[in-house]
Design goal:
The chain contains 3 helices and 4 strands, in the order H-E-E-H-H-E-E. By secondary structure, it is an alpha+beta fold. The protein has a 4-stranded antiparallel β-sheet with strand order 1-2-4-3, with helices on one face. The longest helix has 16 residues. About 25% of the residues are buried.
Length: about 110
């Protein structure tokens, strides 16, 4: 249930930050040789600066400082806590004004 909540938070966040219902892509990779599963949720939204990325998992951090996008800045911090409790890793790659990818990585060993 907690993993489902974390994934839902990540996907909801991607839709929220993609303008006008922009595309959100979900890719799941299972590497049987390395015994890992990785989930990528990619949006077409605002994108993040390196400074944003360094704070995006902090509680109450908001990329949108205007208040035009609803939220309080908890979804990604809660998702990180859940993924970490499940012995996984979560990280973000992003390009400002082009979108972001959130990766959730689990070692199956």
């Amino acid at each position: 249930m907690k993993f489902k909540q974390a994934l839902k938070n990540i996907i909801d966040n991607a839709y929220k930050y993609s303008p006008n219902g922009g595309d959100v892509l979900i890719n799941v990779t299972h590497d049987t040789a390395q015994h890992v599963v990785e989930i990528e949720v990619k949006d077409t939204g605002l994108g993040l600066t390196d400074d944003d990325i360094s704070h995006v998992f902090d509680r109450f951090f908001r990329v949108d400082k205007t208040g035009n996008i609803a939220g309080v800045g908890l979804r990604l911090s809660l998702s990180k806590e859940i993924v970490t409790l499940l012995n996984g890793n979560i990280y973000i790659n992003s390009v400002p004004k082009q979108g972001s990818s959130v990766f959730v990585h689990f070692n199956l060993d």
